[in-house]
Amino acid sequence: MTNLNISPNKNGVGVTIDKINLASDLSATLIFQIQDLLNKYKVVVFKDQHLTDVQLSDFAFRFGPPFVPDNKFPVLGSKDSSNPIVIVGNQAHEYSNSYLGHQEVLPHSDHQWLKCPSSASLLYALDIHLNSAPTVWFDMVQAYNMLDSETKSIIEEINSITYNPFYRPFGSVSAKYVDRNIDIPPGDTFPHPLVRTHPLTKEKILYLNIAYELDFVGVPYKVGNELFSKLYDHIINLSYKYEHHWHNGDLVFWDNRSTIHYRPSFDSSIRRVLKRLTIGGEMPY
Q1: pLDDT of amino acid 79
Q2: Confidence (pLDDT) at 72
Q3: What is the mean pLDDT of the chain?
Q4: Cβ partners under 8 Å of residue 151, min gap 6
Q5: Among 93, 113, 91, CA closest to 101
Q6: pLDDT by residue (tens digit) across 106-148?
Q7: 228 and 252, same domain (yes or no)
């Protein structure tokens, strides 16, 4: 057992590990400990890291295989599917491709519109200037737990469809319950349970983003829209969340099944450069 210097957050979401060097050899015991912390806290923060791309990849993919984008179903960074590292950056002029800029990024789970969404992701801060935006993670296990029993019963057997936002012009999509009589968003769709089970912890998860176009399978528009609005308000007011204010060398590792994450907009002149790696996942059930 490795002795880790751990600082859990007050609200139970997220834990910070200090005085650990992820560039050095990582024992199997340490990897098991980190996985256990991820299962319990949903977000794990490592401070003061100095990692090459190889070291970053070697750490990330001890927890699962790389998420491999398919150009048939576009995702962030799928233009360069040969490189698993995606630059999330603003004023990142030294990179040929960088994504997301300074705009608001609404609360979402990565790749929820795919047959097999990713299981986890990592962001590694390279160059973060003052007044850059934080990132906020919401605990969607607690989002489910905090629902009243009537709502839990209603949503238990519902499947939802998240429509791929990358078929729309960038920045044009926001949370919207789709009225299929007016407009069906483009692209293939993959229904997933609105109440998902975590494959490692067996916890139930409210598997719902509030960033994209979506609807509930077989549910009339009026009923579905009202239910979505209720769940939207529930998530927005959730107290179980972690807000991370970035510093250079921070590495944040999060469970993409049991959280959604959000980034507010910030001044377009501020430099904010991070590297993202994503781990492949399974079909939700």
Answers
A1: 62
A2: 83
A3: 95
A4: 230, 231
A5: 91
A6: 999 999 999 999 999 999 999 999 999 999 999 999 999 999 9
A7: no
Can you give 193-231 as a three-state secondary structure string? ECEEECCCCCCEEECCCCCCEEEECCCCHHHHHHHHHHH
**Quick one: tokens of 88?**
């999330």
C-beta atoms surrounding 7 within 10 Å: 11
Q: Work out whether strand 176-177 and strand 213-216 pair parallel, antiparallel, or are unpaired.
A: parallel
For residue 112, how many other CB atoms are within 10 A of its CB? 25
Q: Provide the 3-class DSSP secondary structure of residue 250.
A: coil
Residue 285 lies in a domain: no
Span 52-59, mean pLDDT? 97
Read off the CATH number of the domain in which 163 is found.
3.60.130.10
Residue 284 counted as domain residue = no
Nearest to 276 by CA among 94, 118, 163: 118
Residue-number span of the structural domain to which 218 is assigned: 139-236
- For residue 206 the two structure tokens come to 């409210």
pLDDT in tens, 164-194: 999 988 778 999 999 999 999 999 999 999 9
* pLDDT value at 81 more than 70: no
